[in-house]
Each structure stands twice: as structure tokens, then as C-alpha cells.
Amino acid sequence: MSLEEERKKASFSPTELTQYLYPNYLVPQLTLERIIELNLKCSKIPELNYSLQKFHDTRQQDIIRAYQFGTALKKFSESEKLTRWERRFIMGFYPELTAHVAQYEFFIPSFALQANEEQKKLLLPKMESLEITGCYAQTELGHGSNVRGIETQAIYDENTQQFIMHSPTITSYKWWIGGLGLTATHALVAARLIAKGNDYGPHIFLVQIRDTKTRKPLDGVDVGDIGPKFGLNGNDNGFLKFDYYRVPFDAMLNRFARLTPEGDYELLDPNGIKILYATLVSLRAGIVTDSWYRYACALTISIRYSLVREQFPDHENPNRERMILDYQIQRHKLFKNLARLYGHVFAKKPVSDHYDECERRLFKGDDSLLAESHALVSLYKVYVSHFTVQGLEECRRSCGGHGYMMLSGLPSLYMNHLPTVTYDGDNNILALQAARYLITLMKKQNPQGVFGFLNTPMPDLSVCPDIKDSTYHQICFEAIAKLKIQSVFKKEQDLIAKGFKKPRIWNEFLQVEGIEATEAVYHASLHFYYIEGISKISNLLIRNAIEILRLIYASTELAKYHAELIRLGMPNSIFEQLKEVQLDSLDRTRPNALALIEAFEISETTLNSVIGRKDGKIYQNMVWTSKYMNPVNKGKVFPGIHRYLRPKL
Amino acid sequence: MSLEEERKKASFSPTELTQYLYPNYLVPQLTLERIIELNLKCSKIPELNYSLQKFHDTRQQDIIRAYQFGTALKKFSESEKLTRWERRFIMGFYPELTAHVAQYEFFIPSFALQANEEQKKLLLPKMESLEITGCYAQTELGHGSNVRGIETQAIYDENTQQFIMHSPTITSYKWWIGGLGLTATHALVAARLIAKGNDYGPHIFLVQIRDTKTRKPLDGVDVGDIGPKFGLNGNDNGFLKFDYYRVPFDAMLNRFARLTPEGDYELLDPNGIKILYATLVSLRAGIVTDSWYRYACALTISIRYSLVREQFPDHENPNRERMILDYQIQRHKLFKNLARLYGHVFAKKPVSDHYDECERRLFKGDDSLLAESHALVSLYKVYVSHFTVQGLEECRRSCGGHGYMMLSGLPSLYMNHLPTVTYDGDNNILALQAARYLITLMKKQNPQGVFGFLNTPMPDLSVCPDIKDSTYHQICFEAIAKLKIQSVFKKEQDLIAKGFKKPRIWNEFLQVEGIEATEAVYHASLHFYYIEGISKISNLLIRNAIEILRLIYASTELAKYHAELIRLGMPNSIFEQLKEVQLDSLDRTRPNALALIEAFEISETTLNSVIGRKDGKIYQNMVWTSKYMNPVNKGKVFPGIHRYLRPKL
Predict the structure, then answer these.
(1) Handedness of CA A469, A470, A472, A476 (dihedral sign)
(2) pLDDT tens figures, B89-132
(3) For a 10 Å CB count at each end of chain B, is N or C smaller?
(4) Does B242 share its domain with B384?
(5) Are A521 and A379 in contact (CB under 8 A)?
(6) Per-residue confidence (pLDDT) for residue B648, from 0 to 100
(7) Of B230, B254, B269, which one is at a domain's C-terminal end?
């Protein structure tokens, strides 16, 4: 059986699915025609393509490759006059894009948001032309999630009308800053503004740290690369310390606040704090909207591999071995993830739409959506990153030993995606913030909005018209979420009644249960978007195939809440039927699995995997690559073996 | 608060705990005095110690470091006249020990087991003196877990009385073989014995593959390193292909079977197959007995870090920040793992004792314990590796962003331990084998042995004398395991009644549920050993501290089976009390946490972590190491920046 024959088994046209997914969900900013065109053009520029050689490289070579990618992208961007979204789309190919991502995704947008008109007029052109290259320096060695605790100081000196940038403690070293380690000439530095002895808390300053020509660090600036990481080693995450380093008066970005030359503080826009807060939310929304890409890569590799790899004699034909995707446990591992991937895809648009609407209102001075949007995006940031990382590892393990080889492409997907659970708000902290928001809804009489369902009456789960009915599943998910949020709410009320204060309650008593409750709310929300997404598919064949994935999602996630379902009155017979639906849906997905994942059209060069090839020729490829691309195999004898091993061994 | 002050909080003496743990559980083969002596002596030999420099090295340097370790170990071993267990203990410091581990743990023991007396007399001395260095070559590109499916051929040529080693297909390449890639001069090759047209299945042949002086591969042998992996990159896992390569008649190991010069097959010991099968089991038992080490490393790092790291204002003292171990969620993450680690420690002795007894009997021709031992060891191999890997990652994440730095030591613990879920029997396959064995017990009237409890009457869970009572917890664990195994058994019987054959049932219908059931059996077994282990501790202060860990273990794992507990009649009030016990036990463990993990006495050099230091000076250390040990920071300007970035950017 070849992959080509497998492709014929699908009940629908994967091309039509691709045409539906891309403009509606995956990359709504671009037409599919333009995506195909960009893919084709990029595939002809070697620097914009992964190579298996990468896995044999040193960190220095990784960094250089990232520079080469960035330089080639800039050239391509200019010759093709790429839009912002087109550039972002191409940047998505490559996770280690230090200079460019730092510049275009963090440095310029943050500057544009927080500088006043005069500052923008003066400096934005230099930033766009890359005369100035920069980074956004907020996190410190001692302070990550707790932004208000940052220690770097910007002390105003009225006499010279300069700011003195200073790092007073070891923990005040800026740390983890992308693009800072080796590259940036300028940094947007978050520092406490101190003037006339008053501490006005964190503000942003544009600080030159390296000579723009030689790139040598300037005096008074201690800057460098923080060292190797679990992944993303082409990035130069950096550290930065100031030793009473003086910068001019206009270094402070002045859109929301400023200092008079005399050192008096003026708040220019009281809305500023909320807008900055929203920026953080937008970074998190980015994780929600972009994570499908690596998830689809891992599933493409592992589903193709599972259709080529055979193991153990087949009970139907003992002289042949059985394809591993024909074992129930392999289907369970992979299709559970395929179903989640589609869930993430259907949810990403409504979640980012919600945030966009929130942002639009905010710029008009209306913050009515901010709290809800923050909770919604937090919930999705937490669980999309969590389940994607978990899924990447499940895909990797489903490929057995070969999934442990770097050449499989699977380890680096995991290594590079892993930090999404930690950065832009650690998952635990965001989940707790979401929990506390959701609890507050319990006090509202009739809460509206995306979490309104949490304060509605409990349904009766004992009657199920049809075990595959999506409405029944939705009712179950919502009931579980209500039960769990209400339980935490009740415990909070009990603790308050006993005289405990909220901060203590949320540090010491309700964190574990509070976080657990948010997961149930997430599933209820995601399943709602899943149904909504499916309802919009007009192609019946496609709709039916994806509806089976929804069944896998619903039955898998609901099964985790068996105890809650019992408490909510679901009879055991219904629960048993639900488990049967799960196993049955795995089998029904089998003929469509390849088409469902290949509709994501991940190219071979971005996959960069010896075991995930479209032609299924994995073994030939593995042997060739290990033999001829592996630097330790050069020469017949490993250099050093005689010196370090042979004389003694 | 310093770590020194934290150490004073413990309710017991960690030194006494160390003295109890090491000889009784951790390293029962050596006295604690000898361990301390070996640790001290090794700490003075640079090659036997990790260094932070390692994280900056290339793969070539990793391999060389492994050689240096091996060479230094051999020298030390000779001068100190180390026993086998002493050598093993020291090898445990270093996970990437290609030549030595391959030689002493795989090559020599396999040869000694399968060669006849004559062969041993001739060759064992050369192997012990390392004149011959070898590897054990079984796994192929196309066949891992399915040993019977291997394809490499050893075709007997009666005319020359030679074997012709041949790799007939691309999938028959030997692959993953440790120590083969660059080092071994000889390989024990598992190949199908083919004589007079008969295929006798896999047998073992000792084959020279490289020149012992020059280490050049011999003609007809295609050998090399398979390339970079997720971890363990100091190891030279290799590939090997034969092209009608001739070896002498005595290459075949002859203890269990042999060929006459005429090419007729003679089975010499019908017990042979079972003994070889037991060897596989012993490798798995090794994973169970050794995994505590890396788990303890990760917990030492993350508990120390959590006692130094502060984040967010403390509700009791808003001018200070709160130590992260004083948040409930951090305690939950770490102490759940600390409790598991102690469980693994208490279980490892009874499990390996069981296997040792099985092996003793087997050599006497008595295979009565083999099936049970295989199931027991499989169960523990699967879940000890699973929970250890999961725990290593939970520890890493609990250190936030800094846990993503290689210098934290945490990523490499994960990377290097990860393959334990795949090698020596993939976890899914072993769990399925265990499930099928456990199901067979349901047919026995009165099964004895370690799983005898599975076929006893269901208990009444509605009456709980004391919510902290370990006997009650044990009854609950066993009841859950029974419920789940019996449910799978019933489904199997139903499917058989419907006319399905067992192979199909176990490929297509019962894999998911069968595997889930084994986890419940594992917890019941582990909890039994936990109680047993605690009961033997005579020091009451230590016993009390570890009993609280057992409460964490029991309440955490039982909570996962809430639905089963409801079905078994546990009232909701008891379940709620159990959850309270869990949270309360986390808080009660807090003052003892550091002592409970430091009792494992992991040395600073084996920890090799900037954030897990005994003196708590993490930030100073991070800055110094990133600044001065990081090769990309050498010189003020990164070489290549002008060439690859500057002209364009």
C-alpha cells in the first residue's frame, strides 16, 4: 500500500478542503492564490527554506542561518512589495528569526504605539529601513510575569535634562530579550521612571546600546547572548545591564505620559495603561492564531509515517505486517490530536475577532470588552499552547524510536514550540487570572457575552435524543463548566465568610481547583466554536468528515469528566455509548485521515522530515541522509577516536 | 530567606534519611561509606564530572567527552579495582557513555549469556581487556519491538563452512545500535539463521566490523553513525549493513543452539528462548531501578529554585515578593512529583527482587514466575518511565522561563531520559502485553502472586474509618483496578462470544481500554509497596514526613478515578475529604520539602545546573556563566554579523 493509494480512500476532495480552510481560517488575510504564489517563489530561494543540514549545525551556524533568512526575506519583501501579512506568513516558515521578528513584530509596533507623533516622524523611517535595529527589553532576570516588579531605573537628572539608565541589582539584568544578544543597536527598555525622588513605575525608553556601524556595545552597557536553550537556538536572546548610562531627554516615549524639563510628571492619556495591557493580550492572541502551523506539521509527519511503517504480523494476513495506523491505539493517539487541531482552527477566528473588536473599542476609549477579551484570550492561550505542545510530543512518540531522531523533524517542532506555555504570560498565571474573572460572573444576575452560559440553570442530562447530537454534547460541556466554576465560587464565598482575604484565598487555597475549572470552560467554549465552524461548511462530504472529528473531540474530552457527568445525572448507559462513539469515530476517520491533514498543505521543505515525506520513501531517505549528511561520518574513522579512546580502551 | 535557613525547618534529620535510603533502596549493592568515598574520589577527576561548558559544545565534542569519561573510568576502575556495581554506580553519573555502556552492559553480558564455554574461554578475556570492543546489534530500520520480524540473514555455506551475513532490504539495515556508529570493532548481530534452505529465525553472531587497530570499517560492511537525536548526542548510535559478508563457523554463539558442519540445526537447550526473553525483562527492570536518579536531579533543582525565586507581592507583606514555593499551584506541581519519586524508590526493590527470583528459577529450568515477572516489570517499566518523563517536564516548567535555558540543567535531563518510554519495549506494546496477561487472571479461581487481588470480591467503600488510613486507600486502589480489568475482561468475552478472534480483538477493539486498565493496576501495586516501604522505617520523624507524601500520592491518583469511586459506592463527602487531604498534605510537606529531596544527596557536579545550586546563589551564577562561558559572546561583535546581516539589514 502506498501513500498514493491511501490518498484515493478519502470521501472528499482535499483540494476543496484546502480552498475552504485557508481563506476562512488558516490565513484569512491572504487569498489562497497569493499563498500558492508566495510558496512557489519562496521555494526557489534557498535561504528561505529549511534543510536537513540544519540538524547537524552548531549554534553559531544556526544564528547565521537566521540572519541569512532575514536578509533574503528583506530582499524578497522589497522586490515583491510584500504587505505586513505576507511578510508574517513567510516568517511563519522559520521559527528562529531573531533580527526580523524582533524588529517587525515587537520593536516597531511597540514604538509606534507608545511614541508621540514627533518621535514617530523622526525615527520610524529609520526603523523601517533597518538603519536602526531593535528589540523590546522588558523581562528581567528576577521578574517575568510580574511586570510591575521590574527594577531597572531611569533616573531623571534635571541639570543635564538626561535620563540615567541604571541596573541597581543582579536581578535587574534584562534577560531573555529576543534579538538583543548579538544583533540590536537599540532597545526599548522598560524601566522605572524616577524623577525628583518619585517612582512613577515602569515606562518605556528608546536606548542605543551598540554602535550602528561596528555593532560594538557602547560604554556603560553590558550586553550579550544568554546562552543555549532547549530550542530556538538561532535566536540571540540577550541580557542587558546599565551602569549609570546617560540617554537624552527624548529617549522616553511620550504618547501616554511625559516629564517636563523640570522633572514633573504629566499623564497625557489615562487610557494608556489599558492600551498597553491590550498589547500583551494581542501577543497571546498571536499564539492562539499561529499554533495550528506546527501542530499540522507534526500530524502530517506522524500520519504519513503511520501509513508507511508496518509492525507485527497482520491477523488477517499473517505473512504481512500490519500498518501501524491500523492499530486502535495509534488511531487514538493521532486522531485525538487531529480532532483538536481542527478545534483550534475553528476557534482561532472568533477568538481573534473578539480581541480585534475589543481593541477597536479601546482606541475609542471604550474598555467594555477588555476584561472579557483578556479572559477569553488567556483561556485560549493557555490551553491551545498546552494541548499543542502535548500533541507535538504525542505525535513524536507515535513514531517510536525514529521520532527521537532530529531528522524526523519532530523533536525540533517540540523544542521550538515549548516556550509558548511559558512566555507572554505563564500558563498558570493566565489560567488563574481567567479563573478569577469567571468567578466574578457568578455574582451577576444575567451575564451576557461569551461566558454568559456559566450562570444559567443546570440542564437535565438524563435524556439524550441522539448520542451523536452536537447540541447534547454542548449542553454537557457547559454543564460541567458551570459545575466546576460554581464549586470554586462557593468555596471562595465560604472562605470569605470564614474571614480570609481574597489575595490569601487565591495564593493558598483555590489555585489548583481554580485552574482545573478553567479547562472545563475552555472545552465548552471550543466545542461551541467547533459546532459553529462545521455549520458553515457547505460541502457536505467535507462537513461529514469533520463532524466525525468533532465526535472524537467531544467524546474524548467529555470522557475526562465522567464523575461530573454522573453527578449531573448522565446515566451510565449514555456514557458507555459515548465511549463507543469515540472508538467508532476513530475507525471512521481512518480512510480520511491523510486527506484531512494533507489539506493543510504543509510543504516538504517546511516539514523538513525524513520520515514525513509525501512520497512515503522514508527508509531510503533516512539511510541516505544519515550516511552522507552527517559530519561525524566524514572520513572512515572518527577524528579523536585514537587520541581519546583508543590508547586506553 | 536563604536555603540555609530553609534547611533548618525540616522536622527530621536529612542525613539519617540519606543513611536509610541509600543502602535500603537507592544503591543497595554498595555501602553508603563506599558511595561517599567514590563520590569524593570521582569529584577530583575532571573527566568524570559534568561541566557547564558541556551545554555549549558541538556533537563532536560531546562524543569526545564521552570517550574521555570512559577512558578515565577505565583507569579509575583498574586502580581502585572497582566491582561491577561500583562501576555501574559511577556510569550513572553520565548518560552518554557509548563505548563503556555498550561494552559492559550489553556486549559482554549478552555474549556471556549466549556463547558456549569454549567461545567464552577464548574471547571473554579479550572483551574484558577491551582488546575487542563491541555492541549489541538487534534493532533494524524496519523492526524494533517486533524482534521476530528482523530481516538480516546469516546464510550458512556448507562448502566453506562459513556464514554469509547479508542485509537483503533497505529495512534490514541495523539501526539505533549504541556504540556501533563510530566505536565498536565487533558486533553481536541478531540475524535469521538460514541453512539448507531452512529459516531458523533470529540467532546471534559475533561479527568483526572494524579493524581493531585502525578502526577502519572492513570491506563488505557499511557502518556509520545515524545522526543527531533529541538527546544523548554523546552516544554514537549506529547503522550497519552487510553485503554478502563472510564470517567463520564459530561466529554463531552456541550455548542454546548450533549448526553441525553439514548445516543441520541442533537445539542444545530448550530453555534458551525463555532465558533470552528474560534478558529483555532485565533491561526493563534496569529502567525501573535507575530512573530515580534523574527524577531526583530535576526535583533538587526545581525545589531549590522555588525557594529562591520570588514573584508578585506577598499578601502578608506587600513590600516583599512571595517565594514561588508558597503558591499552592507550585506546591501541587512539585510535591506531587516528590511523592511519586518516593513511590518509585519504594517499589524498585520489590520489583527487581521479583525479577531476580524469576531469573534464579529460570536457570534451574523453572519458568513458573516468568509470565508474572514479565507483566510486573512491564507495568513498572511503562509507568515509571512515563511518570518520570512527565515529572521531569513538570519540574522544568515549574522554573518558568529559566527552566528553558540549557544551563538550568533541566532540558537535558528530559532530553536524555525521554527514550526510556520507547526503548527496550515501546510503552504501548508493553502495556498491552501486561493487559493481556492480567485479563487471563480473571479466569483463574484463586490467583496467587502479586496480582492476586484482581480476582477478589469487591469491597464496600461507603465506610471509611479514617480518611488518612492507608489500608482504606489501598482498598480503593485495588477496587478501581479490579473494576477496570474486569470490564476489559467482560468486553473481551463479549467479543469472543460474537465470533471475533483474539488477535483482532486486541488489535482493533480493546487496546485503548486495555492500556487504561493497566495504569490502575500499577497504582494499586505501587501504593502497596509504598505502604510496605513506610512500615519499615523505624525513625518516627522520617516515617511521619514520608507518610504525608504517601497521602499526596494516594489522594492525587485516587482523584483521577472519581467516576470509578462513585460507581464503587464512595460517598461524595468522603471524596471531598480526600481532596482536602491532598491540599492539606501539600502545605504540611512545605517545611520538609528541601530535606526530603536533599536526602538524595545529588552532587553539584552531577546536577550541573546554574539554578539548582546548593548555596542558592542562582542569579550571580547565571550572569557569570552566560557572560563568560558562552562562545557566541567571545569578542565584542559576533563573527559573521557583518557578512550575513549587516550589509543588507
Answers:
(1) positive
(2) 998 877 777 677 888 888 999 999 999 999 999 999 999 888 89
(3) N
(4) no
(5) yes
(6) 47
(7) B269
Q: Specify the pairing of strand A310-313 against strand A162-166.
A: unpaired
For A411-457, the pLDDT digits (tens) are 999 999 999 999 988 999 999 999 999 999 998 877 789 999 998 99
Taking the C-alpha atoms of residue A322 and residue B354, their distance in angstroms, rounded to an integer, is: 34
| B383: enclosing H helix or E strand | helix B370-398
Long-range contacts of A119-127 (CB under 8 A, 24+ apart): A119/A206, A119/A250, A119/A253, A119/A254, A123/A206, A127/A103
CB contact under 8 A, A311 and B144: yes
- B276 lies in the same domain as B243: no
* Residue B466, C-beta contacts closer than 8 angstroms, at least 6 positions apart: B472
Residues A508-525 pLDDT 10s: 999 999 999 999 999 999
pLDDT of residue B444: 86
pLDDT in tens, B564-609: 999 999 999 999 999 999 999 999 999 999 999 999 999 998 899 9
Q: Is residue A492 part of a domain?
A: yes
Chain B, residues 392-411, CB within 8 A of chain A, namely 397, 400-401, 403-407, 411
Whether B283 maps to a domain, the answer reads yes
Q: Report which of A333, A107, A432, A540 is spatially closest to residue B515, judged by C-alpha positions.
A: A333
Q: Which of A217, A208, A213 is nearest to A188 (CA)?
A: A208
Tell me, yes or no, whether B452 lies in a domain.
no
> Are residues B228 and A407, on separate chains, in Cβ contact within 8 Å?
yes
SS3 A313: strand
Q: Residue B600: which residues within 8 A CB-CB, separation 6 or more?
A: B18, B21, B26, B292, B296, B300
- Asked if B149 and B291 sit in the same domain, the reply is no
- With CB atoms and an 8 Å threshold, state whether A321 touches B146: yes
R_g over Cα of chain A: 27
Give the structural domain span for B213: 113-269
The total number of structural domains in chain A stands at 2
Q: Which of A149, A230, A404 sits opposite B404 (nearest CB)?
A: A230
Q: How confident is the model at residue A643 (pLDDT cuts 50, 70, 90)?
A: confident
Tell me the shortest Cα–Cα distance from B336 to chain A, in angstroms. Answer: 12
Report the C-alpha gap between B104 and B89 in whole angstroms: 13
Q: Are residues B258 and B284 in the same domain?
A: no
CA–CA dist A27, A24 (Å, integer): 7
Distances (CA, A) of A155 to A139, A160, A344, B248: 19, 12, 46, 83
Q: How many helices (H) and strands (E) does chain A have?
A: 24, 13
Calculate the dihedral angle through the C-alpha atoms of A408, B180, B143, B190, rounding to the nearest 10 degrees.
180
Mean of per-residue pLDDT scores for chain A: 94
A131, A211 in Cβ contact below 8 A? no
Among A552, A575, A591, the domain boundary falls at: A591
Question: B426: domain CATH number?
Answer: 1.20.140.10
> What pTM, to 2 d.p., does this model score?
0.96
CATH of the domain at A216: 2.40.110.10
User: Distance (Å, rounded) from C-alpha A212 to C-alpha A189?
Assistant: 18
Cell, residue A6: 491511501
The x, y and z cell numbers of residue A266, run together, are 504629566
Contact state of B640 with A421 under an 8 Å Cβ cutoff: no
Q: Tell me the pairing of strands A245-248 and A162-166.
A: antiparallel
Contact B422/A at CB under 8 A:
yes
Is B139 annotated to bind a ligand? Reply is: yes
From CA B137, how far away is CA B205, in angstroms rounded? 10
Residues in chain A: 649
* Sign of the torsion formed by the C-alpha atoms of A520, A526, A529 and A531: negative
